[in-house]
Design brief:
The chain is α/β, with parallel strands linked by helices. Helix content is 43%, strand content 22%. The protein is built from 10 helices and 8 strands. The longest helix is centred in the middle third of the chain and has 26 residues. The chain starts with a strand and ends with a helix.
């Protein structure tokens, strides 16, 4: 049921891991938190929580190393390098990870759902907004969407601008925006320890002003910025979505 691949990416200039759980069903790409690796979601028991959906053939779950997050939070190189890597990471997802998923699904056109928590939510929302021809739905849990507060500069490069949905979505128009309006983005967050609903609402407001379908689901003060919250959220939403077909 579990399969792992590793390859050297010229875009990332390093090796990266890619893991799949399941054999059938809707492909779901789950991004790790911060600088997590492809197997983080298994170690923190998210895969166990999703296992009924995986074993019933409703979903196939994929994950890849969060190389962009690793570089960002380890402060690898100057800020410009880290911003460059955010864009390269998304290009790696679009042009290397997506083709790998489609080969595994034996379909060159299947649409993918994305999901993630914390910084993973940033990536899940970002790739859906950047590549609406590939990603159909996104689930951002306890999202951290303003990554500029984690870097020692106020000057973003073009690489970071095109990678950050808070910044590039307001500029979208034409066919790209029309394609994105056919997608759906769910933004969920607790209001407990270390949670920040303000980031979720800020992202939702940016999407809403451009007419992009989205929904904010507040879980309240008993839900914290931690894995027990995400292990409750993601199976719930994926169960509902796959029931609706």
């Amino acid at each position: 049921m579990k399969s792992q691949l590793n390859w050297y990416s010229e875009r990332l200039r390093r090796s990266a891991s890619f893991v799949r759980w399941g054999h059938y069903g809707q492909p779901v790409l789950v991004f790790p938190t911060a600088g997590g690796d492809a197997e983080e979601i298994e170690r923190f028991l998210l895969i166990k929580a999703l296992m009924p959906l995986i074993e019933s053939g409703r979903i196939k779950v994929y994950s890849c190393d969060s190389v962009g997050g690793q570089v960002w939070f380890r402060k690898e190189g100057p800020p410009e390098h880290r911003m460059w890597m955010q864009n390269q990471f998304h290009q790696y997802v679009r042009h290397e990870v997506v083709p790998a998923i489609r080969r595994d699904c034996q379909s060159d056109s299947i649409r993918i759902w994305s999901a993630g928590a914390s910084i993973g939510a940033f990536h899940a929302v970002a790739v859906t907004c950047r590549f609406p021809d590939v990603f159909e739905k996104a689930i951002g849990m306890s999202g951290t969407y303003n990554l500029m507060r984690f870097i020692e500069t106020n000057r973003m490069t073009e690489d970071f601008f095109v990678s950050s949905p808070l910044h590039f979505v307001p500029t979208l128009g034409g066919p790209h925006l029309e394609a994105l309006k056919k997608c759906f983005i769910l933004l969920a967050s607790g209001a407990g320890r270390e949670e920040n609903m303000g980031e979720t609402w800020a992202m939702a407001n940016v999407l809403g002003r451009k007419g992009i379908p989205n929904w904010v689901d507040p879980w309240g003060p008993d839900w914290h910025h931690d894995w027990p919250t995400w292990r409750a959220m993601l199976p719930k939403y994926l169960s509902e979505w796959t029931e609706k077909g």
